[in-house]
């Protein structure tokens, strides 16, 4: 079992502060994901957990034990990287067996474990091949297998799916989740893909420039974003963000939201919470339709309203035409309110 604690962790490279005030606990068997834009410090966190980098201040705990001074080899973690990092001169079998050979396990035992992992990951027919003879998805599966075979107490995964094409990525994502359900082990996952984070994780921490903006289950991150940054980062297509003073009416008054200054309000509305109609109704925002994008499930509509772009969802059967008016109806109870200057959620 493995619970991971990060206590007031800071990390700087020379005078550049990369991680600040990191305080969190990753529970035993949890699938925990750090998500955030490029350069926000995701890989640095994994390197700190693996022991490949040292914290500048603060402490990392495994099961309550401070591991700051514990070298990587003694931490019992397995890391899966974005680049598969397979040994090119070794067949799949030997790539999988390698971590066990290093531990000097008996050949019979190694064989059993390799075939066990290969069966789980569908690698049996590929065991004699070299990495160059595999597709990207197959290589990634071998890399995963090499991490799984050690049965470490913690898995660290740094964007393991980002080299795959869109379809394979979604497939492997489901496989990863299934694998975690069958063999639960503490997993710290890193991605810049918010959808992947939502699909996989028990909990997500959204990072912005080295700081945790919000940490919670996917539904909470999506449903009650704590800051404008989270609101705009999570969800696809991204949330509409509108200055409160532009809106003709709000469902609640700014004072009820606890705002002294009315002008300091920003409203966030997800495109999925906006119906776009061809006929005006009371309470709709009248816009000019710019663009109509059918995606199969939904048809997204961009409209120009008061000089800004709004995105909503077409109502099936109600025809819209670019260049013609469209009427944007924001569903009640789906408004998100933020303090403009601090970016924090209000109400
Ligand atoms: N060894 C290093 N020396 C100096 N700066 C570094 C070092 N490693 C990382 N950085 C800097 O720290 C910041 C965070 O890097 P990190 O690799 O953790 O980002 P990331 O969130 O993983 O980004 P990406 O999504 O692009 O992989 C970046 O600004 C990076 O340039
Ligand atoms: Mg990275």
Any descriptors?
OB fold (Dihydrolipoamide Acetyltransferase, E2P); five-stranded mixed barrel; alpha/beta; binds magnesium ion; 2 domains; 347 residues; 18 strands; binds adenosine-5'-triphosphate; six-stranded mixed beta sheet
Structural description of this entry:
By secondary structure, the chain is α/β, with parallel strands linked by helices. It has two domains: 4-225, 3-Layer(aba) Sandwich (Rossmann fold); 240-339, OB fold (Dihydrolipoamide Acetyltransferase, E2P) (Beta Barrel). It has eight helices and 18 strands. The strands form four sheets. It has a six-stranded mixed sheet with strand order 6-7-8-3-9-10, sandwiched between helices. It has a five-stranded mixed β-barrel with strand order 13-16-15-14-17. Helix 3 packs across helix 4 (136-148). 35% of the residues are buried. Bound molecules: adenosine-5'-triphosphate (ATP) and magnesium ion. Residues 13, 18, 36, 38-44, 192 line the site of adenosine-5'-triphosphate. Residues 13, 18, 36, 38-44, 192 line the site of adenosine-5'-triphosphate (ATP).
Distance separating the two termini = 39 Å
What coarse outline follows from CA principal-axis ratios? globular
Count of discrete domains: 2
Order of helices and strands: EEEHEEEHHHEHEHEEHHEEEEEEEE
Structural class: alpha/beta
Number of strands: 18
Cα-based radius of gyration, to the nearest Å: 24 Å
User: What CATH first level of the largest domain would be assigned?
Assistant: Alpha Beta
Largest sheet: 6 strands, mixed
């Amino acid at each position: 079992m493995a619970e991971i604690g990060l206590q007031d962790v800071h990390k700087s490279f020379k005078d550049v502060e990369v991680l600040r005030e990191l305080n969190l606990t990753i529970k035993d068997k949890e699938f925990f994901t750090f998500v955030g834009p490029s350069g926000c410090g995701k890989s640095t966190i994994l390197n700190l957990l693996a022991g490949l980098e040292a914290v500048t201040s603060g402490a990392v705990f495994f099961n309550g034990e401070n591991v700051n001074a514990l070298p990587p080899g003694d931490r019992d973690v397995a890391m899966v990287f974005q680049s598969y990092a397979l040994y090119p001169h070794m067949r799949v079998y030997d790539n999988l067996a390698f971590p066990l050979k290093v531990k000097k396990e008996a050949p019979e035992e190694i064989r059993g474990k390799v075939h066990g992992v290969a069966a789980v990951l569908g690698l049996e027919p590929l065991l004699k091949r070299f990495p160059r003879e595999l597709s990207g998805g197959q290589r990634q599966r071998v890399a995963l297998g090499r991490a799984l075979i050690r049965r470490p107490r913690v898995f660290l995964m740094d964007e393991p799916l980002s080299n795959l094409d869109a379809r394979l990525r979604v497939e492997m994502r489901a496989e990863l989740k299934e694998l975690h359900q069958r063999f639960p082990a503490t997993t710290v996952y890193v991605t810049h893909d918010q959808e992947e984070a939502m699909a996989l994780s028990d909990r997500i921490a959204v990072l912005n420039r080295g700081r945790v903006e919000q940490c919670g289950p996917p539904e909470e991150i999506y449903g009650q974003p704590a800051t404008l940054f989270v609101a705009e980062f999570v969800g696809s297509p991204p949330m509409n963000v509108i200055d409160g003073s532009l809106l003709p009416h709000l469902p609640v008054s700014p004072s009820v939201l606890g705002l002294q200054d009315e002008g300091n309000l920003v409203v966030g509305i997800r495109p999925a919470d906006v119906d776009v109609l061809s006929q005006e109704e009371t309470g709709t925002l009248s816009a000019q339709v710019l663009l109509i994008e059918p995606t199969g499930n939904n048809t997204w509509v961009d409209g120009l309203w008061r000089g800004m772009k709004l995105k909503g969802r077409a109502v099936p059967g109600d025809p819209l035409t670019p260049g013609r008016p469209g009427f944007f109806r924001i569903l009640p109870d789906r408004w998100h309110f933020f303090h403009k200057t601090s970016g924090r959620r209000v109400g």
